[in-house]
Amino acid sequence: MKEHWIDVPQGRVYAVSWRPAEPVEGGLPPIVLFHDSLGCVALWRDFPARLSQATGREVVAYDRLGFGRSDPFPGQLSLSFVSDEAKGTFAALREQLALDRFVVFGHSVGGGMAAVTAGLYSDKCDALITEAAQAFVEDRTLAGILDARQAFSELNQRERLQKYHAEKAEWVLSAWIDTWLSEDFRTWNLDSALPRVTCPTLAIHGEHDEYGSTRHPERIAGLTTGPAVTEIIAGCGHVPHRENEACVMSLVKSFLR
Questions:
Q1: In this predicted model, what pLDDT tens digit does every residue of 48-69 receive, in sequence order?
Q2: What angle do CA 238, 217, 123 make, to 5 degrees?
Q3: How confident is residue 155, by pLDDT bands cut at 50, 70 and 90?
């Protein structure tokens, strides 16, 4: 495990890379992880290290600006924050870590960011993996966020968030809830970004995902222009890599192989 600090115009971004004990001979493009709306490197737990060992590839994860150990985000999120990530922080990460070809893997809203990135760098991205990604604003997504807002009104839930985001915790929570519940965000979707994705795509989704129905992976697989596979994990909710890591790992290994 190696730590990195990535310079961006608004500050510094924290990143970590893991290398396999037995890398594939000749090397393989690394996997870059994009975290969810409340996530950070630490909340991936040991998944990146295990993914690196399982695939024989380097795995890179980073805290978006405003999250985890990265510097605070200046102001409020733009409504274009999903597409902005590919053009901003990811571009800096790729340059400063000298990533030529790569695989992108995104969880939840990170899946949308990964999809935009795969399309923007279609000549450099070998594969796209989305997990519990949202492709549009669905009533089920908003209902799940409203339930979460109620849950986070309890002190212990906010303290848990502070454990990972420190003084940025309130901003992190507001950036998620206020942005997604905004009337101006209701028309957001990935429809224009997905057709630019020409690499193979694996869209993973939990059968009981509380933040989105299976219409999301179906739309992702249906609109990308490369070969695409949809995998629905039975009995699983919004965090398949934590709820059924063995299944996710098996799907990813087979797909990348």
A1: 999 999 999 999 999 999 999 9
A2: 115
A3: low
**Residues 6+ away with beta carbon under 8 Å from 107:** 33, 34, 35, 36, 39, 131, 132, 133, 239, 241
Average pLDDT for the chain: 96
Amino acid at position 45, single letter: R
What is the reported pTM?
0.96
When mean pLDDT is compared across 31-40, 71-80, 146-155, 181-190, the lowest value belongs to 146-155
Rounded-to-10 torsion of CA 217, 220, 226, 231: 0
- For residue 248, report the phi and psi dihedrals to the nearest 5 degrees: -60, -45
Nearest CA to 199 out of 250, 240, 256 is that of 256
**Maximal CA-CA distance, the chain:** 51
The fold adopted by the segment(s) 2-256 is: Rossmann fold (3.40.50)
Structure token pair of residue 75 = 């102001």
Report which secondary-structure segment, H or E, holds 204.
strand 201-206
Residue 204's identity, in one-letter code, is I
As a dihedral over the C-alpha atoms of residue 203, residue 148, residue 193, residue 185, rounded to 10 degrees, the angle is 160
